[in-house]
Amino acid sequence: MFAQRLKSHHELHNIKKDFTISRMDVNEYIKSIPGVSREAVIYIHIPYCRKICSFCNMMRRLGSPGDDYARLIIREIRSYGELDYIRQLTFQAVYFGGGTPTTLSSRAIQEILAALRESFRLADDAEITLESTVSELTEEKINVLHEGGVNRISVGIQTFNDRGRQLLGRNGSGKEAYQKLLLLKSLGFENVNIDIIYHYPHQTREELDEDLNKVFSLGLASFSFYSLIMHPDSALQISSPSENDTDRALFDRLYARSIDQGFAILELTKLSRHDRYRYITARHDGADTLALGAGAGGTLGDMIYMNPISLENYQNYVESGSDRKRVGVVTKNQYRTVARLIGAMQRGRIPRHEYADLLGGRGQRLTERLLAEGYATETEDGCRLTPKGIYWGNNICDTMLKNLEI
């Protein structure tokens, strides 16, 4: 049914152009819409890494951010905190992404967290996540995060195998990574997620099992699993793993063993035991995303926007105060409905009854084919993807988007 697997949601058909109404200054738009009581999340982008992984093509700088970058974020926080629309939102989750957010100094992290609480209405049980690498998680920084109210950590392990770690450009050994995760849990963090990459060049089934055995023994709340994408603009310039039965065989083994260990699919690329991952589930349900930091993108009301990518332009934008201008895209209200449908499919569901009008005849026929060919099974609220469907999940989502009746 599908010729080549789409491994990331970033490869999906771009629907934004189908729903764009106009372009408008972000601040003018926010001031023009009435305040509404709704759930929202916050994304804070830290585009710095002390080492660039060989497989990465993200926008980032080598090194660590100075305290001036944290001050820019705090200034942006306080500016948003003055807007009526933002004051009406209740933020269910805060996510520090990157890059490597723990390249921020302990003091900078504490000051940003304090500014968030001073300027915004955070839910009493708000989920606060920081991404990190093993080398950044010193015992001192772990304690600072815990004391500051961070209650979820996501660590980019990628693999515990030393050959694989060297190939992917990771610091330290697999044993050191494992011991650091044990330390993280012993110091009070129960909600720990890690990233695992599989199907890196010449990976064997035994090497995958080595990673899975360590994942299971750690008692993690969740883990993300990604089949290696060989980006043309990354440093990893070797022959790409062939798109053949090996990729599917490794996926099937990873999935089956994880289900046997009590994990369940939270997203197409995430398995969870007890991780609610409120940041992403709220986004999938259509919550606003307030984006802070250089290159951060978000949605407020019916507007999609992105901060300047370059640090210099971001600094100029924040420091210009009331004179700052930044253009966002105003979309039709239906865009939020489509985003919720995408969110459901990213969680392995096709709610065909709830979205019958949007799916239309073409979408319903596609769903029937997915059921007939074993990609999905019927449920009361529509259908749920089988392991085969999860493997091809992004292709299914992409095809469905191209066949919406809008």
Automatic annotation (TrEMBL):
GO terms for biological process: porphyrin-containing compound biosynthetic process. Keywords: Iron, Iron-sulfur, Metal-binding, S-adenosyl-L-methionine. GO terms for cellular component: cytoplasm. SMART domains: Elp3 (SM00729). GO terms for molecular function: 4 iron, 4 sulfur cluster binding; catalytic activity; metal ion binding. It comes from the Bacteria. The keyword Nucleotidyltransferase does not apply. Residues 34-264 form the Radical SAM core domain. Gene3D superfamilies: Aldolase class I (3.20.20.70). The keyword S-adenosyl-L-methionine applies. PANTHER family: COPROPORPHYRINIGEN III OXIDASE, RADICAL S-ADENOSYL METHIONINE DOMAIN-CONTAINING PROTEIN 1, MITOCHONDRIAL. This is Heme chaperone HemW. It comes from Syntrophobotulus glycolicus (strain DSM 8271 / FlGlyR).
